[in-house]
Amino acid sequence: MPRHFAPERTVIQVTAKHPFYTEEHETLRRQARRFVEQEIIPHVDRWEAAGELPRSLHRAAAAAGLLQIGFPEAYGGIEVPDLFYLIVLTEELARAGSGGVIASLMSHGIGTPPIVHAGTHEQKQRFVTPVLAGEKIAALAITEPSGGSDVANLKTRAERDGDHYIVNGSKTFITSGMRADFITTAVRTGGPGMGGISLLVIEGDMPGLSRSPLKKMGWWCSDTATLYFDHVRVPVANRIGPENAGFMAIMMNFNQERIMLAAQAYALACVCYDEALAYARQRETFGKPLIKNQVIRHKLVDMRMRIEAVKAQLEMLAWRVSHRQMPVAEVCMLKNFATMSLEWIANEAMQILGGAGYLQGSKVERIYRETKVLSIGGGSQEIMKDLAARQMGY
Ligand SMILES: Cc1cc2nc3c(=O)[nH]c(=O)nc-3n(C[C@H](O)[C@H](O)[C@H](O)COP(=O)(O)OP(=O)(O)OC[C@H]3O[C@@H](n4cnc5c(N)ncnc54)[C@H](O)[C@@H]3O)c2cc1C
């Protein structure tokens, strides 16, 4: 896709009269859009090649008030009444056409909530405040080389030694794992199963922690790491919540994380659609614009149909979760529906763009490579179906 090509935004048309979006949401949208245009779009190709985001981006995003949304004011956050603020932010970040930017810039969105929910005041001041100020980077480390789906069976061991735990083991696929200063890490402190898991904040400079980068199909600018813990001494003061109560804190995190992954899939699908529509209007074949062919118009309608369905489900569940409901099965199904729709839509967009879509530098090329991670991370498609089935009593 040529760089000068400015796609039109045709899917997300919200007004102050919208049932879920107010003027405040729209103000955030304008601020985030300006930030993405000035601070992200000009640099994203360079960050993709470098394999990580600069720390200065975190500071700039904090200065723009984008990192703090949804966190308590007492720790530097910006409290908001609903999830639509984060959905708006995700939509705008997605305009850069890089899911990796969203994953890594917002990795504190999975790394810090367990601390906010279960940590002490002192822990929140130490680990949350500097992250929301963009000075430190947070990550969440659950998945291990032996498996990610079976969280209750994780093996990284933390043995108590006076005022410390001695941590041995390994984590893998950790987003922002190469750069993270605070790694909220699930460890086994007790017996087998979910009742033996605790959360420790492992700090990036602790002796015995080493990291190696992972090369991936997509999300290139999001540094992803395997972490090795070799007798890492972690103060008991870094334990989040009571000993052996970590599993619930991890699970509480998942509902919002899955809604936000669905929001990301939706927002990236919108980008694919916009790119495809704009290209179909501009590109001429056989003496007429592509869009004058019925088959292309039908593809676009089919793409839009899925986007509208995902949007409706996303907004309805975001509203329910914002009103303290816990529709776990529906959130699982939403995550699957949104991510499967993105895979289908990115494929159709690529087809409409033809060779131009296959070239690096095209948003659709990058998004196409990034689709699978959303169907795997944060609970894979199969695990989502299993959980939904259990929740519905099958
Ligand atoms: C780019 C990227 C970033 C990530 N970031 C993070 C992060 O920041 N922190 C973190 O902790 N993790 C992270 N993950 C890990 C992610 O959450 C795991 O990949 C995911 O949970 C699946 O675990 P697994 O890859 O070990 O697959 P496995 O658990 O080994 O499963 C392999 C396949 O088998 C299927 N499967 C497993 N069990 C069953 C079953 N009982 N029935 C049917 N099918 C089954 C799975 O759905 C999957 O398709 C990331 C992953 C990627 C790729």
TrEMBL record:
Stored SUPFAM superfamilies: Acyl-CoA dehydrogenase C-terminal domain-like, Acyl-CoA dehydrogenase NM domain-like
Domain Acyl-CoA oxidase/dehydrogenase middle, chain residue ranges per copy: 139-232
Cofactor names: FAD
GO terms of biological process kind: fatty acid beta-oxidation using acyl-CoA dehydrogenase
The entry's keywords: FAD, Flavoprotein, Oxidoreductase
UniProt cross-references to InterPro entries, sorted A to Z: Acyl-CoA_dehydrogenase, Acyl-CoA_Oxase/DH_mid-dom, Acyl-CoA_Oxase/DH_mid-dom_sf, AcylCo_DH-like_C, AcylCo_DH/oxidase_C, AcylCoA_DH/ox_N, AcylCoA_DH/ox_N_sf, AcylCoA_DH/oxidase_NM_dom_sf
Domain Acyl-CoA dehydrogenase/oxidase N-terminal: start-end pairs: 22-135
Keyword Methyltransferase: no
Family designation: Belongs to the acyl-CoA dehydrogenase family.
Protein name: Acyl-CoA dehydrogenase
Taxonomic classification: Bacteria, Pseudomonadati, Pseudomonadota, Gammaproteobacteria, Nevskiales
